[in-house]
Design a protein that fits this description.
The structure holds six protein chains of six kinds.
Chain B: H1 6-23, H2 27-55, E1 58-61, E2 72-75, H3 77-104, H4 110-129, H5 133-152, H6 158-188, H7 193-203, H8 207-224, H9 232-239, H10 242-268, H11 270-276, H12 279-299, H13 304-324, H14 328-359, H15 370-373, H16 375-389, H17 395-409, H18 413-439, H19 454-472, H20 475-493
Antiparallel strand pairs in B: 1-2
Helix pairs in contact in B: 1-2, 1-4, 2-3, 2-4, 3-4, 3-10, 3-14, 3-19, 3-20, 4-5, 4-10, 5-6, 5-10, 6-7, 6-8, 6-9, 7-10, 8-10, 9-10, 9-13, 10-11, 10-13, 10-14, 10-20, 12-13, 12-18, 13-14, 13-18, 14-16, 14-17, 14-19, 14-20, 16-18, 16-19, 17-18, 17-19
Chain D: H1 2-22, H2 26-46, H3 50-74, H4 87-104, H5 121-132, H6 138-146, H7 148-169, H8 187-209, H9 218-236, H10 238-244, H11 247-270, H12 285-316
Helix pairs in contact in D: 1-2, 2-3, 3-9, 3-12, 5-6, 6-7, 6-12, 7-11, 7-12, 8-9, 9-10, 9-12, 11-12
Chain F: H1 2-26, H2 30-52, H3 72-103, H4 108-117
Helix pairs in contact in F: 1-2, 2-3
The chains are: A mainly alpha, B mainly alpha, C mainly alpha, D mainly alpha, E mainly alpha, F mainly alpha.
Chain lengths: 90, 494, 164, 320, 106, 118
């Protein structure tokens, strides 16, 4: 059962990767990365149960936090650049 | 109690002082801290050398864990000699650094400079004393990372690109070494060098070990700037602050050579490295190419620092040539040259720093008539240059003499000719500077140039003094080099 | 004075989390837990984050009830969106509109905006003062949101009456 | 069955790698690098390396990606085509790869319990750790005690990076607390950051002190701690974050962490043992080990957190 | 007695979650523009992830594991929409025009 | 077949390493080079971790009732190596930022052109 779930997760990650490759905008890629982050969290949790080592959940928790912060950071760093360019144009 | 922990303290004391230096906001205090530590390190190095001289190889188990499980520090004669070289150059360049750094670095960087210098010193010492393959990688990275920073602090913007280029190549080299260590670990199950060398014969005939050997060799060759992989070196030495050039030229590549020796002789063993893998022939070929090509290129440089950098590549060729013979005579000649070249290049780069301080340039066409204004600096340069060429009564002559002897013993007489020819090339490039400084009429602004300050001249002359001393009485250092070579090769033959 | 109370509340909440996470109840780890909690509360105070109670609100009955309601909404709209995704014709009609948030506090508005985003089919694109720009996948989803059911319920939770 | 996941993940990694080579937009490449890290982190979980997975995720998907994006934001986004033909690099890569594949032919098989790697030192670590160190997580015991000296080197490496970034990028204190015109609109982010900031810090400390029992330790804790502050800086502006932890304080923290570590080692010498011998720190060797490991993990955590923030501040304060 | 029931419940949840995750991923691929794709991400973030976690909670029983899973769930519920919102906001700020259906008036 | 499965991991890892290596040596953009180094190093980490895996083993955190653990030593080494790679990445990127400020470009070829003009 866990196998089936992790297989589905892998397929979903692959689909997310396709979106990350195709873009077309940066935001699509960030979105794909964010989704892959979520899927990875679930994957780690499921793997933890599969290996019967639920200590793995700590890792999943860290992933949630890190992928959130890095998504936000990407957007903020990029947004500051966009607003900079905007002010340049004026 | 402290004495028995000397091997650990040798590395840990500069390590601890680096963060302390960062905390000292006043650059003068940071400098004083670094100065004291450098001389302390030299004192410890001498004590350690004396211990090894009397007691033989020292083994120190960090954390008191038995060897294959914990990390071992292992110092034999070759290691002690290396430590002495590093510590000497470090101690001599430190008093020199103050004026040089004030002049060449932006004010806000001076504090960080001393921190990074101490870290670099830590890394280099750590590489030499460790008996653990992975620990070597870690300290290699400490020294590399700090030297990237040190180089990037140079006065022109090209220092940044030079540092970047070095970073990329250095990281490739380090990663290659890491791959090699990984493969070795995979086949032997241990990281301790002694332990690996004992377990290696069982698996020596596998393709994995051969590949591991190749990767380690290529990786270390990048670090020590062996001929076709030297491209990072000229830029790095040219654009780094002068004191950094002096320190690095005298230590960093030398430690690279030492790592190569460790891997070839201690870890893989003479038998495997030279008989099974035929690394001797390849090294000899590359060394010959390095000596000839780099010397030729050096002749056409206008920037003297760049010229000295190419000359370094050529001199590394000599050292490698000695090693490639794989005889006690050859290796000890290589190690002797390693010591001598460290002293020579250190002194020459320091002389360039003096000139840069007063002249603002190290290009030959700006040096016309300089000898009249800066007689002591130019005299130091000439003395160092003579040693570089290998004129009798200088250190350079001694090591070349041993090198020629070693080559002749093995019947490689063309090598002897090669050494002679390349000495002529060295004569040409040194002469270009001498000609400009002594025999050309001074330029219009030359009368404003003054002699370098004593704080920079004295350290320069100290290294020149070592050169001349070795040239007159080479007994002690030759003895140490021979013992070092014997301990390297002897271990391999066991 | 109330800042201190908030700080104590935060500390208790964090310590509870620590105990739940830890799973090792040796004296050493509990002491470390207390120290960690104190450090975090200190930093949060330094960062000027203890201006109101956030965590205790999350455990109020009305909030739990709201979560329950929101969960049902989420499931419903999830099934809707899933159908849209799988439909070969993909009958979507994306549209953008604005809604006014009735909530008075920042926290309330954010709860509302995040609830909008949580429910698939609508995404809060922008929050400026009390105007929320929403992107909806279908007209139906937009209509659903415009009815203002969720808006009122968030107000309820916030405890701000009456909603204008 | 784990094999299957392993194979698929490696395949995905390979595809991502190729995409990174081909992609011209550097922002896209940075995002793909982050995905690459996440995928390799999951692979580490499959391969039982939980501590490594934790670190790789925190480093690769977190701070490295942020740094890469900050750099790309300062440079031009599009990558120019190389001027030289890629034939020589291609040849070099092919030769290197071929050599490595040649080397794999005599390797022990993947997962083979009889491989030499598992016999010598490793089995001793697994066997002796409960008795000698008394810590369930063998990775922690090897990291902090058996090979504690490597970890001292590791902290020094990170300290070097901090000093280097300090030298290269320096720091500028922001007077303006709020950056960009859009900060007013960040209300959602601000509220969520307010909610999460204490939780992330607490979680970092939890990871720090539970490294003995589960995945984690000083390094991971330091990174997570810094991440919490990065989130704060993102939501409330760099100026505010610098107000909470001053730059001089960061400098001190970076140095103090290394000093704590080294001091534990030197204390071992002063108490008559070897450098980094924790056994002599207390009457009972196992207690001494515990104490030593805890202290050095603390040192690691402090330095890493400080250096991460120094690096982040350094990069972001260049954005003007 | 309870165990088989819990198992069945957990399998149902896991399977359902997996299906929603897959659908969400397909949506991310199929939807025509960035803003519509965000809705598909929402599907993954909410019901997909939620059901999988609930399924795991049933497996874990009443223990610390459950607490950690709940904590993950809690984190996800807050971070997911915030990230999606931040994405939409950033895209809007950079003048990325949403695809709007013009058949029906606003 | 066993040969293939037994080495599959290593071969893919080698391809990954070479991908990163290729980026470093073939691409002129300085940021991309650093990214290449990052990929190169990360792939080496996978090589190490692969060799630590034991068939049927589990994470090396000792627990009652489990007997087969994967090898902890490579994990420790790679933890250190990850830190090193982060330090390298940070320094490399900091250098790129400074080069960009000094040269106005982060393309190696353009920098060469500017250097030759000096």
């Amino acid at each position: 059962m866990f196998i089936a779930v992790s297989a589905v997760l892998l397929v979903a990650i692959a689909l997310g990767l396709v979106r990350a490759f195709r873009g077309p905008t940066l935001y699509d890629r960030v979105m794909a990365a964010n989704m892959i982050g979520t899927l990875t969290v679930l994957m780690v949790a499921v793997l933890g149960f599969m290996a019967e080592r639920p200590e793995f959940l700590d890792i999943a928790l860290v992933y949630v936090l890190i992928s959130f912060v890095s998504t936000i950071a990407v957007l903020r760093v990029y947004a500051s650049r966009v607003s900079m360019q905007g002010s340049d144009r004026k | 109690m402290l004495l028995s922990n000397l091997p650990a303290l040798q590395v840990v004391i500069p390590l601890v002082s680096a963060p302390v230096c960062l905390l000292l906001r006043n650059p003068r205090h940071a400098w004083a801290c670094a100065l004291i530590i450098s001389w302390l390190v030299l004192a410890m190095a001498l004590l350690l050398l004396q211990q090894v001289y009397t007691l033989g190889t020292i083994s120190y188990a960090i954390g008191a864990w038995a060897t294959p499980w914990g990390i071992e520090y292992r110092i034999d004669m070759a290691g002690a000699l290396m430590i002495l070289i590093i510590a000497t150059v470090g101690a001599v360049t430190m008093p020199y650094a103050w004026r040089n750094i004030q002049h060449e670095l932006h004010r806000k960087h001076t504090g960080v400079y001393y921190t990074c210098y101490l870290l670099c010193l830590t890394g280099l010492l750590g590489i030499v004393v460790t008996g653990d393959a992975f620990n070597l990688f870690v300290f290699l990275e400490i020294s590399s990372l700090s030297s990237y920073v040190l180089i990037s602090l140079g006065p022109s913007r090209r220092a940044l690109t030079a540092a970047y280029q070095y970073l990329v190549m250095g990281t490739i080299g380090a990663t290659f070494i890491l791959i090699g260590i990984g493969l070795l670990y995979m086949m032997t199950g241990t990281l301790n060098m002694q332990d690996i060398s004992q377990r290696l014969p069982e698996v020596a005939d596998t393709r994995t070990i051969r590949v591991a050997f190749a990767f380690v060799t290529v990786g270390v060759s990048i670090k020590l700037a062996l001929f076709p992989l030297h491209i990072w070196l000229p830029n790095a030495y040219t654009y780094a602050p002068s004191v950094v050039s002096a320190f690095m030229a005298a230590t960093a590549t030398k430690v690279g050579v030492y790592v190569l020796l460790r891997f070839f002789f201690t870890l893989f063993g003479l038998q495997f490295s030279f008989n099974a893998m035929h690394v001797g022939e390849i090294l000899m070929l590359l060394a010959v190419a390095a000596i000839l090509i780099a010397s030729l290129v050096a002749i056409f440089q206008d920037n003297v620092k760049r010229m000295l950098a190419y000359s370094s590549v050529a001199q590394i060729g000599y050292i490698i040539l000695g090693i490639s013979l794989a005889t006690t005579a050859g290796v000890s000649a290589g190690m002797l040259h390693l010591f001598n070249h460290a002293m020579i290049k250190g002194a020459l780069f320091m002389a360039m720093g003096c000139i840069f301080l007063r002249l603002g340039s190290v290009e030959i066409h700006n040096m016309h008539g300089l000898a009249r204004q800066m007689p002591w600096t130019m005299a130091a340069f000439v003395a160092g240059g003579l040693s570089l060429i290998g004129v009798p009564l200088t250190a350079g002559f001694i090591s070349k003499w041993y090198l020629v002897n070693a080559a002749l013993t093995d019947g490689y007489w063309p090598l002897a000719v090669l050494i002679l020819v390349s000495s002529l090339l060295a004569l040409i490039y040194i002469w270009r500077v001498v000609e400009a400084a002594y025999f050309h009429l001074p330029g219009a602004d030359m009368h404003k140039v003054r002699e370098a300050p004593a704080s920079m001249l004295i350290p320069t002359w100290l290294l020149i003094g070592v050169n001349l001393y070795v040239g007159l009485d080479a007994g002690l250092i030759t003895n140490i080099a021979q013992q070092g070579a014997a301990s390297l090769l002897g271990q391999a033959l066991q | 004075m109330s800042r201190l109370k908030h700080a104590i509340n935060l500390g208790l909440f964090l310590f509870a989390i620590w105990v739940l996470l830890s799973g090792h109840y040796t004296p050493l780890l509990l002491v470390l837990g207390v120290l960690s909690t104190l450090l975090v509360v200190f930093l949060a105070a330094r960062a000027d984050l203890i201006d109101r109670e956030i965590y205790p609100i999350l455990l109020k009955a009305s909030v739990l009830f709201y979560w329950f309601w929101l969960g049902r909404e989420i499931i419903k709209s999830n099934i809707n969106v899933a159908r849209l995704i799988l439909d070969p014709a993909m009958p979507i009609s994306p549209n953008v509109f604005t809604v006014r948030a009735f909530q008075k506090t920042e926290l309330g508005r954010v709860t509302y905006a995040n609830s909008i985003t949580l429910v698939p089919g609508t995404v809060a694109m922008d929050v400026e003062e009390d105007v929320i720009t929403v992107h909806a996948l279908t007209m139906a989803a937009a209509k659903d949101l415009k009815r203002g059911d969720m808006n009122r319920r968030v107000c309820h939770v916030e405890g701000v009456f009456p909603c204008s | 069955m784990e094999h299957l996941i392993d194979i698929v993940l490696l395949g995905l990694l390979m595809i991502t790698g190729f995409a990174i080579v081909r992609m011209k937009s550097l922002l896209a490449v940075a995002m793909l690098t982050s995905i690459y890290s996440l995928l390799s982190a999951s692979l580490f979980v499959v391969l039982d390396a939980v501590d490594v997975a934790l670190t790789e995720a925190a480093i690769g998907a977190g701070i490295s990606t942020i740094l890469m994006l900050a750099t790309v934001a300062l440079t031009r986004d599009e990558e120019k085509a190389p001027r030289h033909t890629p034939l020589l690099p291609l040849a070099v890569v092919t030769v290197t790869g071929a050599a490595l594949i040649y080397g794999t032919l005599d390797m022990p098989h993947y997962g083979d319990p009889a491989a030499p790697v598992h016999q010598h030192a490793a089995s001793a670590y697994l066997h002796d750790t409960p008795g000698e160190i008394g810590v369930p997580n063998v990775v922690t015991s090897v990291l902090a005690s058996y090979r504690g000296y490597d970890t001292l080197g590791e902290v020094t490496v990170i300290f070097t990076a901090g000093a280097g970034v300090l030298a290269l990028l320096g720091y500028r204190t922001r007077r303006r607390n709020i950056q960009g015109p859009g900060i007013r609109k960040l209300v959602v982010l601000r509220v969520i950051a307010k909610l999460f900031f204490p939780l992330i810090l607490l979680f970092a400390l939890y990871v720090l002190f539970h490294g003995d029992y589960g995945p984690g330790g000083g390094f991971q804790a330091g990174v997570i701690f810094a991440t919490g502050f990065i989130l704060y800086a993102l939501a409330f502006g760099l100026g505010n974050a610098q107000r909470v932890i001053h730059h001089p304080l960061l400098r001190i923290m970076a140095a103090v962490g290394v000093l704590i570590y080294a001091a534990v080692g030197i204390e071992g010498i002063l108490l008559g043992g070897k450098f980094l011998e924790y056994g002599v720190l207390a009457d009972d060797p196992v207690t001494g080990q515990h104490l030593g490991i805890m202290l050095i993990e603390l040192g690691v955590g402090i330095t890493v957190a400080a250096v991460m923030l120094i690096i982040y501040y350094g990069f972001v304060s260049r954005q003007d | 007695m309870m165990q088989p029931l819990l198992d069945v419940l957990s399998w149902i949840c896991l399977l359902g979650g997996a299906i929603f995750l897959l659908i969400g991923a397909i949506g991310v691929l199929r939807f025509p523009d960035f803003y519509t794709r965000l809705h598909a991400v929402s599907v993954c973030d909410t019901l997909g992830a939620g059901l999988v976690l609930v399924g795991l909670i049933f497996q874990g029983g009443l223990s610390l594991v459950t607490v950690k899973l709940l904590l993950i769930f809690y984190f996800m519920i807050f971070t997911g929409p915030t990230a999606v919102h931040a994405l939409a906001q950033a895209a809007l700020q950079s003048k990325l025009k949403p695809l709007v259906d013009d058949h029906e008036p606003r | 077949m066993t040969e293939l499965l037994g080495h599959y991991n290593y071969w893919i890892v080698i391809i990954l390493m070479m991908t990163g290596f290729y980026i470093v040596i073939a691409r002129p953009n300085l940021v991309k080079k650093v990214i290449g180094l990052f990929i190169f190093q990360t792939s080496v980490f996978i090589l190490f971790i692969s060799m630590a895996k034991i068939e049927g083993g589990t994470a090396p955190i000792i627990e009652e009732g489990l007997s087969v653990y994967s090898n902890p030593l490579p994990h420790v080494l790679i933890l250190t190596a990850i830190v090193v790679s982060l330090a390298t990445t940070a320094l490399g990127l900091a250098l790129v930022v400074r080069i960009q400020e000094a040269y106005g470009t982060s393309n190696e070829d353009d920098i060469h052109v500017q250097d030759e003009e000096d």
